[in-house]
């Protein structure tokens, strides 16, 4: 199979020369531009670059175009299926933080091949990583405690749903203007009805388990990185000054790759596992033990479920998941009964919201 690659500069050049699907992506004038050459401003991630587009109808969207190795047909098909799951429109009372998106297989034209794109609503706000470190610098313990509750609720939502995510990190979770948590990276989103999909990413090195399987998907990929986030937030809520010593302003709240690869030598783990706060110490010890585990399965067993629900009868179980991001015609969805894991039950949930006043946003609906 021929592997095709593309550079960000080639993507920008194609956009500037109208070598893209204008009908699906929108007019060039709507793409945010700037810099010395007044060209499309792209925000590069690990595998894709995101452009902001404002339509004539004042609809702001994010256009994510992959760079490096172009995703194959299997990956595009998986993402297209995921897009359809998120677009199912049935009434529900539960809230979930997955942002709907659309897959455009032929989006940008590069020489003799086409590059796909993902189009989704633009989420205005701050990343969890940025907000957490800002709260710590401001000694805002209340804000950090609210983030802890929000992230633990996000874990509960994943546990009760048929969805999983292979790249949870502080940079992929946004706190929107209305205080809602949103997962903005759908590249490694997975539904349990999709079996044996190709593995294209291994997750962020500051969050993913070091012994995660490099060639195939595993169950509950979201769990370990969420625990890394929760332990980081608990530590900052107790001692905000840790932000000056550990982590960085890239995408590490506190833990970095070396902490996860060599936990026995980690100064951060040593500090947290000997802290006098019982909750922090016990959770840090459990996370350290999970980090040492030889497999992700063993790591997740060590961490344990983020939510322990009651044992309910399996008959007539239905899960309704309402999207956290409200958009026209994409306000809610529910997976079919046949697509719901027998171990994941439906529970009523309030919106996963952080008071916007904590960071200068707006909670008005």
User: Number of DSSP strands?
Assistant: 16
Uncertain segments: 89-94, 309-350
The rounded distance between the terminal residues' Cα atoms is 49 Å
Biggest sheet, in brief?
5 strands, antiparallel
**Strand portion, in percent?**
15-25%
What level of helicity do the residues show? 25-40%
Shape: globular
Radius of gyration: 21 Å
Assign the structural class, choosing from mainly alpha, mainly beta, alpha/beta, alpha+beta, or little secondary structure: alpha+beta
Mean pLDDT: 82
Count the DSSP helices. 10
Strand order of the largest sheet: 4-5-6-10-9
SSE pattern: EHHEEEEEEHEEEEHHEEEEHHHHHE
Can you walk me through this structure?
- There is one protein chain.
- The protein is 30% helix and 17% strand.
- Helix 6 packs antiparallel against helix 9 (278-292).
- The model is unreliable at 89-94 and 309-350 (pLDDT under 50).
- It is α+β, with helices and mostly antiparallel strands and 365 residues long.
- The radius of gyration is 21 Å and the shape is globular.
- A five-stranded antiparallel beta sheet has the order 4-5-6-10-9. The protein has a three-stranded antiparallel beta sheet with strand order 11-13-14. Strands 1-7 form a two-stranded antiparallel sheet.
- It has helices at residues 8-16, 22-25, 73-87, 128-137, 141-160, 223-238, 257-261, 267-273, 278-292, 296-303; strands at 5-6, 33-34, 39-40, 42-44, 48-54, 60-66, 68-69, 95-96, 102-110, 113-121, 125-127, 163-165, 173-176, 181-183, 189-191, 322-323.
């Amino acid at each position: 199979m021929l592997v095709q690659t593309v550079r960000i500069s080639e993507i920008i050049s194609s956009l500037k020369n109208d070598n893209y699907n204008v009908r699906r992506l929108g007019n060039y004038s709507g793409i945010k531009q700037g810099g010395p050459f007044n060209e499309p401003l792209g925000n590069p991630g690990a595998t894709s670059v995101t452009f902001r587009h404002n339509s004539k109808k004042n609809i702001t969207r994010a256009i994510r175009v992959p760079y490096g190795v172009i995703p194959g047909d299997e990956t595009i098909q998986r993402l297209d299926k995921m897009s359809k799951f998120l677009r199912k429109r049935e009434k529900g009372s539960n809230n979930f933080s997955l942002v709907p998106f659309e897959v455009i297989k032929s989006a940008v034209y590069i020489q003799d091949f086409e590059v796909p794109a993902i189009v989704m609503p633009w989420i205005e706000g701050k990343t969890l990583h940025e907000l957490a470190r800002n709260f710590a610098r401001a000694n805002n313990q209340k804000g950090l405690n609210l983030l802890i509750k929000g992230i633990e609720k996000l874990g509960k939502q994943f546990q009760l749903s048929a969805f999983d995510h292979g790249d949870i990190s502080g940079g992929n979770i946004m706190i929107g203007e209305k205080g809602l948590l949103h997962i903005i990276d759908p590249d490694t989103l997975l539904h349990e009805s999709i079996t044996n999909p190709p593995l294209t990413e291994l997750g962020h090195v500051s969050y993913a388990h070091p012994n995660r399987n490099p060639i195939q998907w595993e169950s509950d990929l979201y769990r370990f990185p969420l625990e890394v986030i929760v332990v980081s937030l608990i530590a900052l809520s107790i001692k905000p000054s840790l932000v000056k010593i550990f982590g960085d302003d890239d995408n590490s709240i506190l833990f970095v790759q070396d902490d996860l690869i060599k936990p026995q030598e980690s100064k951060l783990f040593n500090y947290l596992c000997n802290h006098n706060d019982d909750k922090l110490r016990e959770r840090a010890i459990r996370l350290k033990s999970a980090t040492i585990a030889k497999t992700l399965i063993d790591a997740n067993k060590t961490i344990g479920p983020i939510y322990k629900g009651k044992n309910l009868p399996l008959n007539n179980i239905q899960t309704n998941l309402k999207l956290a991001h409200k958009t026209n015609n994409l306000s809610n969805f529910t997976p079919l009964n046949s697509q719901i894991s027998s171990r994941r039950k439906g529970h009523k949930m309030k919106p996963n919201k952080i008071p916007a006043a904590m960071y200068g946003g707006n909670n008005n609906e």
